[in-house]
Amino acid sequence: MKNVWVISLGGSRIIPDEVDDKFLSDFKNLINSHRNKKFVVVCGGGSSARRYISALRKLGKGTRDQSIGGIAVTRLHAGFLARLFGKQANRELPMNMKKVKNLLGRNRIVFCGALRWRDKNTSDGTAAKIAGFLGCSFINLTNVKGLYSKDPWKNKKAKFISRISWDDFLKVSRKIKYGAGQHFVLDLIAAKEIKRKKIVTYIVGSLKAMDNILKKNKKVNGTVIGEKS
Fold first, then answer.
1. How high is the mean pLDDT of the chain?
2. What is the spatial order of strands in the sheet that 163-165 belongs to?
3. How many CB atoms lie within 10 A of CB 149?
4. CB under 8 Å to 38, separation ≥6 — which residues?
5. Residue 147: domain span
6. Would you call 17 exposed, middle or buried from its count of C-beta atoms within 10 A (0-12, 13-18, 19+)?
7. Residue 165: strand pairing partners
8. Is the per-residue pLDDT at 185 higher than 60?
């Protein structure tokens, strides 16, 4: 679909500790500045989801129950943002990709959380699947600049990777052990999907970087996942 972008909005940006009303206001203004485009925004669960997942784990619940608890938080975030954006956004949350496409025909912005439970999937995987289904580019807006050689929060010597091929990114993703509520720039399902559908994917940590991509500026202050590294 032309002029459609899929945005994976990390829960860490929505609610780092408290609801980040300043960031969300800026996010809304940015989206509204691109009136000629349509957006599907897939909301993550972030630390809020991980708290519930941790509690379910401690209470003896298995991975599936933990994941479903996290999914509920992503949908809560999606409903909250849809209300923030008002009439230009959907009020009904989609539960499958056909519904996403249908709602996109009637709304400029469609918010959703995880569409359904799937083993070893995250909201990033959902976003990648939707981008593949709609045939459009994909931006992952998270709380780090992009992809690093190691976790930048834990290792100050981690090296930033500005560009990587689909094949090489898939190799990196395979090394990440899955857990409900996992925190990595894109999960294995997303890595497989963007490679299979050849989806140009951007990982960015700021609204300015996202704005530059939407404006098709040459400089990308983030990571580009594509055909050549």
1. 89
2. 109-112, 38-43, 4-9, 137-141, 201-204, 222-226, 163-165
3. 12
4. 1, 3, 4, 5, 104, 108, 109
5. 4-226
6. exposed
7. 226
8. yes
pLDDT digits (tens, 9 = 90+) for 11-57: 889 998 889 999 999 999 999 999 999 999 999 998 888 899 999 99
The total of structural domains in the chain comes to: 1
> Which has the closest alpha carbon to 139: 2, 5, 1, 3?
5
Element at 122 (helix H, strand E):
none
Residue with token string 């599907």: 40
- Predicted TM-score (pTM) of the model is 0.90
The torsion of the CA quartet 177, 181, 185, 190, rounded to 10 degrees, works out to 80
The percentage of residues in the chain with a pLDDT greater than 70, rounded to a whole number, is: 93
More confident residue, 81 or 11: 81
Spatial neighbors of 125 by CB under 8 A, at least 6 apart, are 118, 186, 187, 188, 189, 190, 193
Question: Which amino acid is located at 136 in the chain?
Answer: C
Q: Read off the CATH number of the domain in which 35 is found.
A: 3.40.1160.10
